[in-house]
Amino acid sequence: MCGRFVGYRKLEELAEHFPIDKTACDTVASYNIAPSQEVLAIVRRDGENWLDKYHWGLVPFWAKDITIGNRMINARAETVDQKPSFKNALKKRRGLIPADGFFEWTGAKGRKQPYYLTLLDQRPFAFAGLWEEWRDPQSESPVYKSCAIITTTASKSVQPVHHRMPAIITPAKYDRWLDPACEDPTELKDILANWIETEMVAVPVNQRVNSARQNDPANIKPLEQIEIKF
C-alpha cells in the first residue's frame, strides 16, 4: 500500500514536469502527507488539465457519507476494474497525483524502520490516481472532491522494503491516462502494468515520520548509519 508521501515542489516546477493547463489551488510543501488530507491532483475537465486539491481517500458518488474514504486510500491495479468503488472512476475519472517520494516501513512489528523512496534522478513523478466528486443530498455543502492512489506489485528495487508500491505513470502516458475518451480496461491495465516507473532508491530515515504531525524537510534526511538485514 501507499500510506504516506511527500510533495514539496512549487507551481512553477510542477508546470515544468506535468501537463498543467490551469490551476485551482496553491501549492504548499508537505513532507508527511497522510490519508484524509488534501493532496494535489491533475485531472481533465472540459478538455483542459486542472491542478486542484482532493481529499486522499476516495468517496464514490453513491456513498452515504464521506467516512468510506478512510478505507479507500489505495486501489489495487490488479482488480481496480472489478471493484464497485473504483471501476467507474477508472473509466472516466483518472488523475495524476504529483509527488517527490513516498515512505514505506520494513522490519519486525514494533521496530519497523521507515524508508524514503524516490526516483534515481530525484525528479518529481506522478502516482496513477482516481478521483470522484460527492454531494451530500441532505445539505447544500460544497462538493467533496476525493481521490485514491493505485498500487501494484513492487519492482525489484522496492521489494526489499515492501511487497507493494504505488503505480507511478511514465511521462509518455500522462496524456492517455488523463484522457476520459480512453475507457478500455485492457488498455488502462496495460498502462498500469507496463508504463510505470520501476527503478527507485530507498534510504532509511528517522522514525519521526511515523507521526503525521512531523512535517518538515528533516523527514527525508537519510540516516547516517543504520544496519538493516533483509
Element layout with pairings:
Blueprint: E1 5-7, H1 11-17, E2 22-23, E3 30-33, E4 38-45, E5 48-56, E6 74-76, H2 87-92, E7 94-99, E8 101-106, E9 113-119, E10 125-134, E11 144-153, E12 164-166, E13 168-169, H3 174-178, H4 185-194, E14 200-204
Parallel strand pairs: 2-5, 5-11, 6-11
Antiparallel strand pairs: 1-3, 1-8, 4-5, 4-7, 7-10, 8-9, 9-14, 10-11, 10-13, 11-12
CATH topology: hypothetical protein yedk fold
Could you say what the CATH architecture is?
Answer: Alpha-Beta Complex
The Rg value, from CA coordinates, equals: 17 Å
Strand content: 25-35%
Supply the CATH superfamily name.
SOS response associated peptidase-like
Task: Give your account of this protein's structure.
A hairpin with a 2-residue loop joins strand 4 (38-45) and strand 5 (48-56). The strands form 2 sheets. The protein has a 5-stranded antiparallel beta sheet with strand order 3-1-8-9-14, with no helix packed on it. A 5-stranded mixed barrel has the order 4-5-11-10-7. It starts with a strand and ends in a 26-residue tail after the last strand. The chain has 230 residues and is mainly beta. The protein has helices spanning 11-17, 87-92, 174-178, 185-194, and strands at 5-7, 22-23, 30-33, 38-45, 48-56, 74-76, 94-99, 101-106, 113-119, 125-134, 144-153, 164-166, 168-169, 200-204. It has 4 helices and 14 strands. The protein is globular, with a radius of gyration of 17 Å. It has a single domain, classed as Alpha-Beta Complex (hypothetical protein yedk fold).
